[in-house]
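User: Let's play a game. I give you a shape written as tokens, and you guess the letters that built it. Ready? Here's round one.
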């Protein structure tokens, strides 16, 4: 799932019912991460298959590359709320 507001572009991942939000733009070449596959907690970029742990933002083969994470929660009306700062 993807969420955009102003300059924020966020990918929202559902890992076993728990939501996590990370930058939607891949740090490699800007691929749209929300369009990639989610295998467990591994989010796979659709362009060149870099993989990120969406719970931590860490890239699997280069831990120095980390996606920005956002606080996310579900409201009582089931709306998904992302905290952009
Ligand atoms: S743009 Fe994501 S792996 Fe290349």
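Assistant: Ready! My guess for every position:
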């Amino acid at each position: 799932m993807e969420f955009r507001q102003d300059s924020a572009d966020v990918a929202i991942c559902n890992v076993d019912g728990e939501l996590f939000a990370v930058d939607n733009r891949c740090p490699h070449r800007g691929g749209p991460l929300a369009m990639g596959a989610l295998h467990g907690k591994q989010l796979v970029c659709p362009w060149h298959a870099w993989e990120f742990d969406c719970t931590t933002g860490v890239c699997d083969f280069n831990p120095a590359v980390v996606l920005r994470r956002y606080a996310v929660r579900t409201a009582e009306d089931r709306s998904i709320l992302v905290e952009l700062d």
